[in-house]
Write a structure and sequence with these properties.
Layout lengths: L1 H8 L21 H134 L5 H13 L1
Helix pairs in contact: 2-3
Length: 183
Amino acid sequence: MTKNLIDSQEGIPGMMEDTGANFPPFDSATYGSQILWLVITFGLLYYLMSKVALPRIANILEVRRDRIASDLGEAESLKKETDEAIASYEQSLAEARQKAHGIAQSARDTAKADIESKNAEIEADIAKQLVAAEEKISAVKAKAMGEVEEIAQSTTEAILEQIMGSGVAAKDVAVAVAAAKAN
């Protein structure tokens, strides 16, 4: 059957006929010319790459390297500025805290001194009032003690008059009150 198929294809135009020739890249008779054209093509490509494409790529890489280096330098300088700003801020904050602490301490000391002076004034005023009150009490007490005899005599006379129904001599009542006071 395959033989019939091969026989039937012989008459078809465009079908390969076995002429005994090999595929040109594998033909040993064309190796020399193929190698020559390979060397010429490789040389031209190498020349074009080394003179046109590679310098452009090298230039692009150089520009990128320079840009990266400048960006890193700028970032480093910005980092230094930031560190300096942070240090300055922390120092200012510490100074402000110290100042606030000093102001608070000063305010406490001033308030304490003011309170102590007011307390001293109040204590002095209270002492004056106490002395005045003691003087008044002594005066009232002395006056009351001076009137006690009189009150005792009049009270005794009134009681005796109620009990006895008649009056007693004031002289006798005064002597009895004096005797009771002495005991």
